[in-house]
Amino acid sequence: MTRTVVGRGGLDPEASWLAAGLDHLAGIVDPDLPGWSRVGFSEQDVAGRAWVAAQMREAGLETHVDAVGTVIGVLPGSSPSAPAIVVGSHSDTVPGGGRFDGVVGVLGAIEVARALRRSGTRLTHELRVVDFANEEGNPQGVKLVGSRAIAGGLGPDLLGATDDTGTTLADLIAGAGHDPAAVASCRWRPGEVAAYLELHVEQGPVLEQQGASIGVVTRVCGISTFVLDVHGRRDHAGTMPMDRRSDAMCCAADAVLAVQRIAAAGADTVGTVGALTTTSPLTNTISEQARLTGEFRSPRLDVLRELQRQYAEAVAQADARHRTTSDLTWGHTDPPTVLDAALSDVVAGSAAAVGHDAVRLYSGATHDSVEMARLGPAAMVFVPSRDGRSHCPQEWTDLDDVEHGVRVLLQAVLDVDALPAGAGRPG
Ligand SMILES: [Zn+2]
Prior knowledge:
Elements: H1 16-26, H2 43-58, E1 62-65, E2 71-75, E3 84-90, H3 103-119, E4 127-132, H4 145-151, H5 156-159, H6 169-175, E5 193-201, H7 206-210, E6 215-220, E7 222-231, H8 248-264, E8 270-278, E9 289-298, H9 301-322, E10 325-334, E11 337-338, H10 341-353, E12 359-363, H11 369-372, E13 378-383, H12 399-418
Parallel strand pairs: 3-4, 3-5, 5-13, 6-12
Antiparallel strand pairs: 1-2, 2-4, 6-11, 6-13, 7-9, 7-10, 8-9
The chain binds zinc ion (ZN).
Zinc ion (ZN) is lined by residues 90, 101-102, 135, 200.
């Protein structure tokens, strides 16, 4: 039996609240950064989340902020013993980011709660609406801060991680008025989550290319980061013959292009060097040291391991070519996350029920769903990103597409709520 909510697909009759919400958050941004920047734990992030919390309260949710800044709003269900259906995303952005990444999922989740209230629909399960703290990461190098804390993975090692100035993640969180020492209180119990559903912009070009309005995500990428330190020899740029140099800059250039070549040869694999620095600022001196930092991503862990092997080989070849020696250090490898197949089928059915053929696709971007999948079945709904652009000021999703996504999210909440206990999902 499919339950639906009356009105214009159940959403705000003029979609005015969603549009106004997108505009409102787009007004709370750091004037010193390009785009729509609400960087985690910044003044703007704190102000944005205060507004989100107020919207949750206005929607009738019992709202609180946890010890690391995640905003949580609860709509109680009719069965107090039933685990929660959790909907949400994040309202922080990367520096120089766009207006839709994360925000669409937070506002969409609140609109689901609003639609349920408007129609007088009482769910069996509790509905928990979440704006996760600092999904995008920080100079301390920790992503998914809020969802990690909820899933129990934000330990002393990560809270003690430092930026270039020695500021720890705990300092950063405390500076925004939260209490990182109480991080254990953020943790949700196993069995507390019936399902996690996240609406998000695709951030890539697949849906647009296929002319599709809704995507259901199969897996979220695995990521392997690395640092490559190249050691050459400082010499005079005018007198040392080309065939006797040990030029760290040239080895680093080869190593950058090797990332591109190896990643481009695989299906669904990508590789990026984000930074390249050298010790020598002079043109009349051969570089002695170079450091590059980068990453590979793939939907499969075995492929990620193979990329690591190929890259180590390419670096050894570059060293031989340039008479350099390099240290290749792999950071933590995040394995890919396979989202819940049965729940994703339910969501694809919800999309069909409201008129959308869902395309199944892989996410090359990471999401809070990775952490939430540790607590229960997780699924994601994607809506198109214009030209596949994201993490840039040009990021855009049409309001119609946002509405379609929210409509699917609402239907998915209703459909998951209606699943009989024991039918593959926790009751
Ligand atoms: Zn995001």
